[in-house]
């Protein structure tokens, strides 16, 4: 299972970016209202950056920034033992942000990421084959002390993982083969959209796909 204590199975930045784009399109197909979607992606977050995110509506989230430096991912699980709110005033757990490379300073200062509400932070530098995190002494006897286990394990790249999520979160049954087509970045088409149990307007989904940076069939 993927977590800050075991990052070996987390997809590398390029694969993670494609996965988050796929997840964002799937959510856009299944949920018309943006604020109720779990995953989102902005391919034009800035002139030099793309950004994928997860928000569960209960205060937990992550933001992943992709640029020429690699990938920076910050997460917050409000009920985890390592929440900054375990103390007054709130304090980020020692080590979580201590070793973030200087090239990710822009993300560390990004107001939209609410860095003060961080329970885990990982990164992968461009040209590097491994994800990293800070020198953290985790609290003892906790299976998921920072919330990274439940958040990052959902990013294993397995269509079955998303199928189960859809069943629980949207209460919908989506065929595994259809999810796999989006995971493979099959260009969006009317035929692909019609394979889902939804009634979204194709032109509206095109607008979502353009924001996500997902391919569209000419």
Count of individual helical segments: 7
Low-confidence stretches: none
The number of strands is 6
How many strands, what sense, and barrel or not for the largest sheet? 6 strands, antiparallel
Order of helices and strands: HEEEEHEEHHHHH
Backbone CA Rg: 17 Å
Distance between the termini: 39 Å
Instruction: Tell me the helix content.
Output: 25-40%
Which range does the strand content fall in? 15-25%
Shape: globular
Summarize the structure in words:
By secondary structure, this protein is α+β, with helices and mostly antiparallel strands. Helices cover 28% and strands 17% of the residues. A 6-stranded antiparallel beta sheet has the order 1-2-3-4-5-6. The termini are far apart.
Secondary structure: elements and pairs:
Blueprint: H1 13-30, E1 39-46, E2 49-55, E3 61-67, E4 70-76, H2 105-108, E5 120-125, E6 132-133, H3 148-152, H4 159-169, H5 176-183, H6 190-194, H7 202-212
Antiparallel strand pairs: 1-2, 2-3, 3-4, 4-5, 5-6
Helix pairs in contact: 1-7, 4-5
List keywords for this structure.
7 helices, 6-stranded antiparallel beta sheet, 218 residues, globular, alpha+beta
């Amino acid at each position: 299972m993927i977590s800050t204590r075991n990052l070996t199975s987390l997809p590398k930045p390029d694969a993670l970016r494609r996965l988050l784009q796929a997840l964002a399109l799937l959510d856009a197909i299944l949920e018309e209202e943006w604020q109720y979607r779990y995953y989102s992606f902005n391919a034009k977050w800035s002139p030099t950056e793309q950004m994928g995110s997860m928000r569960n509506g209960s205060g937990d989230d992550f933001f992943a920034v992709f640029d020429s430096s690699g990938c920076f991912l910050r997460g917050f699980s409000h009920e985890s033992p390592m929440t900054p709110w375990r103390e007054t005033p709130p304090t980020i757990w020692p080590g979580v942000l201590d070793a973030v490379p200087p090239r990710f300073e822009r993300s560390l200062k990004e107001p939209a990421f609410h860095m003060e509400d961080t329970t885990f932070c990982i990164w992968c530098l461009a040209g590097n084959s491994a994800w990293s995190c800070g020198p953290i002494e985790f609290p003892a006897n906790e299976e998921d002390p920072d919330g990274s286990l439940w958040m990052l394990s959902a990013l294993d790249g397995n269509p079955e993982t998303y199928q189960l999520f859809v069943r629980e979160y949207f209460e919908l049954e989506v065929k595994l083969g259809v999810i796999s087509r989006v995971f493979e970045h099959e260009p969006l088409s009317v035929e692909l959209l019609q394979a889902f149990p939804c009634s979204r307007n194709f032109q509206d989904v095109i607008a979502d796909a353009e924001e996500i940076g997902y391919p569209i069939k000419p």
